[in-house]
């Protein structure tokens, strides 16, 4: 049987409970007796930790003892204090060459090759609202295309409405305005979108014609536009939209999957509902899978900037140049200004679910979160929804809020999302599907209908991190080839398009 406690590093002064532990329980192999009831995933003191002494997990400082902590005591928010500490960026110090797999030997999947050479993993027709005022119209158009009406188009995965709640009442020009347009355009031209229809009201700030022109979009058979005030109102626009999609469907249905290199995969990395096992099982296993992907020429996209706060030096040490490392630090400096004076995760406090799962603060959470990116060099840093052109491990700036982060990753070009969760997230996405990875077996068993992969097998001693990474990589190839994920089978993804609201609403 696996030990009831996990020692992550010989230098750590805390141990992690593999399962719930009882008050007074003797653990002679670690020389401690439990001084509290401790939930699974939480920490106990391996030895006495004096007040002010660093608390170490993964051989990294996650805070300092707020008071003397005795061996066997529960170590959590009640006795750990987060303090700022110096972190040497050491640009490039940990860069190691990647042992790329020769092109002829790289893994493959059945993808959808577009006219420009980009490769999709799904085949949707997308409907986009330039403003909230046209959101209902595109939802009504999408609702018209029931499975029965799409039965004649078996190669089309669906007609999806990407409604959003902005587009007016916002400052323009502004970074917020540019970001919204970039997100809409990036999703509308995504390789998983066969054709797109953009619908506006007519008097909004985000004018359809200006949106199309500013983003260098080209209207034609695969991109059409409608303006409600010009077409004749709600009913007339719905009818015109249905007709436009009906005209797009035959061409969209002509696609055929073909064998392509895994180098065409761009994977958005996300975590939500993290727990004390996230940094022990699912996140490092996903990181191992991303190391495999990078060796095969693919791209891994780490995001959630607030969730690397405190461990950013671990990424800058892997930056291929000082310029790349500094760009990451610049984004963190921007976030420090952006969140100043607000009670946000960036400033230290993690969510209730994270705390219940055993995470004491943002640094402890960030240590696990950053593991999703694996160990290969950091090749580029992108702003939110900026097109990703570099292969390998990259970073895209985003909030930690799951729908906003994944919306940006998909707009940047991610054609699959891998989402780790310890508490049990029910997230799904379109047009790029989400694969959900559970950190522990009890949660996976309880929520198996929503979970794709059980990384708790690492915790159970059945698989190593490397073996689980290989299993994840193989699952990615199957999903990219068209195998439905659990969230797809449940019909999730129609309401998870959430562009980042960056600026004021007036």
Structure commentary:
This protein has 506 residues and is of the alpha/beta class. It has 3 domains: 77 residues, Archaeosine Trna-guanine Transglycosylase, Chain: A, domain 4, CATH 2.30.130.110; 129 residues, Ribose 5-phosphate Isomerase B, Chain: A, CATH 3.40.1400; 228 residues. Helix content is 29%, strand content 19%. It is built from 16 helices and 23 strands. It has a 7-stranded parallel sheet with strand order 19-20-18-17-21-22-23, sandwiched between helices. Strands 1-2-5-8 form a 4-stranded antiparallel sheet, with no helix packed on it. Strands 13-12-14-15 form a 4-stranded parallel sheet, with helices on both faces. Helix 3 crosses helix 12 and helix 7 packs across helix 15. The chain is globular and about 75 Å long. The mean pLDDT is 95.
Instruction: Please count the helical segments.
Output: 16
Per DSSP E runs of 2 or more residues, the count of β-strands stands at 23
Which structural class fits the helix and strand makeup? alpha/beta
Mean pLDDT metric: 95
Estimate nothing, just give the exact number of structural domains.
3
- Oligomer description: single chain
Question: Major beta sheet, specifics?
Answer: 7 strands, parallel
Radius of gyration: 24 Å
Helical proportion, percent range: 25-40%
Which blocks of ≥5 consecutive residues have pLDDT under 50?
none
Task: Give a brief rundown of this model.
The chain has helices at residues 135-144, 147-150, 175-188, 208-214, 228-231, 234-252, 282-295, 312-316, 322-338, 352-356, 362-369, 402-412, 441-446, 456-459, 465-480, 486-489; strands spanning 5-6, 14-17, 26-27, 32-33, 43-45, 54-57, 60-65, 74-75, 80-81, 108-113, 119-120, 124-129, 158-162, 193-200, 223-227, 258-261, 266-271, 299-302, 378-382, 392-396, 416-421, 434-438, 453-454. The protein has 506 residues and is an alpha/beta fold.
């Amino acid at each position: 049987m696996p030990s009831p406690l996990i020692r992550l590093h010989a230098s750590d002064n805390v141990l992690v409970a593999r399962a719930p532990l009882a008050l007074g329980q003797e653990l002679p192999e670690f020389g401690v007796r439990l001084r509290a009831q401790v939930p699974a995933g939480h920490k106990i003191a391996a030895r006495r930790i004096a007040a002010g002494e660093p608390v170490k997990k993964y051989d990294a400082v996650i805070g300092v003892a707020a008071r003397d902590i005795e061996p066997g005591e529960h170590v959590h928010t009640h006795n750990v204090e987060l303090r700022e500490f110096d972190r040497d960026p050491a640009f490039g110090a940990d860069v190691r060459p990647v042992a790329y797999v020769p092109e002829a030997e790289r893994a493959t999947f059945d993808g959808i090759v577009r006219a420009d050479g980009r490769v999709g993993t799904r085949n949707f027709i997308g409907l986009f609202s330039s403003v909230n005022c046209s959101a209902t119209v595109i939802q009504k158009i999408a609702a018209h295309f029931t499975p029965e009406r799409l039965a004649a188009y078996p190669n089309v995965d669906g007609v999806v409405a990407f409604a959003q709640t902005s587009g007016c009442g916002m400052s323009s020009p502004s970074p917020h305005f540019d970001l919204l347009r970039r997100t809409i355009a990036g999703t509308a031209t995504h390789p998983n979108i066969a054709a797109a229809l953009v619908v506006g009201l007519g008097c909004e700030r985000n004018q359809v014609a200006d949106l199309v022109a500013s983003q260098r979009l080209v209207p034609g058979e695969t991109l059409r536009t409608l303006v409600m005030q010009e077409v004749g109102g709600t009913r007339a626009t719905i009818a015109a939209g249905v007709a436009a999609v009906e005209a797009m469907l035959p061409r969209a249905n002509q696609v055929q999957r073909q064998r392509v290199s895994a180098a065409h995969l761009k994977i958005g990395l996300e975590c939500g509902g993290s727990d004390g096992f996230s940094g022990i099982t699912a996140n490092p296993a996903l990181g191992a899978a991303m190391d495999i992907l990078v060796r095969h020429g693919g791209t891994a996209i780490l995001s959630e900037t607030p969730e690397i706060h405190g461990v950013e030096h671990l990424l800058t040490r892997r930056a291929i140049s000082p310029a790349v490392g500094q760009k990451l630090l610049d984004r963190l400096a921007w976030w420090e200004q952006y969140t100043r004076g607000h009670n946000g995760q960036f400033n230290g406090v993690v969510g209730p679910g994270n705390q219940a799962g055993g995470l004491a603060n943002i640094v402890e959470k960030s240590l696990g979160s950053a593991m999703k990116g694996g160990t290969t060099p950091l090749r580029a840093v992108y702003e939110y929804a900026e097109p990703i052109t570099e292969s390998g491990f990259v970073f895209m700036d985003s909030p930690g809020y799951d729908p906003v982060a994944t919306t940006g990753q998909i707009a940047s070009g991610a054609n699959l999302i891998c989402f780790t969760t310890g508490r049990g997230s029910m997230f799904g996405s379109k047009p790029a599907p989400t694969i959900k990875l559970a950190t522990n077996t009890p949660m996976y068993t309880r929520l198996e209908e929503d979970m794709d992969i059980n990384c708790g097998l690492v915790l159970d001693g059945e698989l190593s991190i490397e073996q689980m990474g290989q299993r994840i990589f193989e699952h990615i190839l199957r999903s990219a080839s068209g195998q439905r994920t659990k969230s797809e089978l449940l019909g999730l993804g129609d309401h998870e398009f959430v562009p980042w609201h960056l600026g004021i609403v007036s």
